Amino acid sequence: MSFVLLDVGGTFVKAAFLAEGHEGVESIKVVRHPITEFSSISTKSRTFDPRKLLLTIESALSKVGFDSNSTSRLLVTGQMAGLAMFQRDAGPVSEFISWQDEVYTASSTDLQDLVLRTGDPIRPNLPIVRLSNTRTPDDWVIGSFMWGVTSLLVNRPIEFAHVSDCAALGLLDVLTADWDSEALLRVGLRRHQLPTPSWDTKMVGLIGNCEVYVPYGDHQMSLFGGNLTEDEVSVNIATGGQVSQITANPSRKLQFRPYVVKGSYLQTRTHLTAGRRLNSALETHLGRAPTSQEWTQILKLDNFSHLPSLLETTLNALVNEYCTEIQKIMRPETCRLVFTGGVAQNSTLIRSKICEKLGLEQRVVEADDAAIAGLRRIAELQFKDFNCEL
Predict the structure, then answer these.
(1) Which domains occur in the chain, in start order?
(2) Using an 8 Å Cβ cutoff, are 28 and 45 in contact?
(3) pTM, whole model, 2 decimals?
């Protein structure tokens, strides 16, 4: 029995191979392959050529020893949001749209009321916004970016997707785990044009003899890989940032998303400023793009007051923003913050300041492959015939 785990991120395609050996599980180190370049890099457009994207993914899979005849199962996760469109009995009808794309903006505030059910605020890159400006033929099938990737791998539009990935479309009633009828009406779609949302790890196709399973959202899979518990708040500070807490009863007044296990959700705050803000301040101070060494020097500081005023102000603002957002979602029983992301992992000072302000303990998830670790947990939990010790 063997698994290949695939994570299609914003910068890299990551793959890992897991197999049973005589003494339990044997794991090959994660392989990283730069993701395909965008087809266009205009001010706001960020799209991928599906054919080139598939070649990149196949290259990453081959580097970890994927063999369609001997590999048993392929588990998939990757960047949330984005959009892919297929003709039902054919291939993609357009380029895949990345989560970074911002061609469209919400043209009407009447989309905003859907947030109470779909769980996310209306942002320019949400598919619901793009679809509200697009006429979609009845024989087209629509899904998330990772739905599109998985469909490419099995060479046909897949019929199911995990709810954690479906929610990224902005059309899912999160609590019922079904497509929202009013949202579909607003964007001119019918249910048969979308994959069926599922909490289960369903098989959706084959590559040769290898079974391929529903795609998962990478936000959820990263937290799952970091073993987040209900009395902890996840704090991701990287290029961008999010804070999240597992809950069985999410408040509709805040962002919320389905988690991995049925009946569990994430109360979350996303799109927080982090590395981008710090990089901009550092670039303004230096008059040029900072080097990696200069970045490291900033993150390793033990006191913000040693910095020029612009950088000190920026870092203090970052700490205050995260404290404010954490307080919006954390429950009274919260005892610990779980830090992930390059900025948080490398800056003891930022972590300490946030924890001191909130009076909470901390732990750091050191691995930068948390989503792969999440898929490995799925392999253990969902497939009892696979002997995988985490």
Answers:
(1) 2-220+370-382 (3.30.420.40), 227-364 (3.30.420.40)
(2) no
(3) 0.88
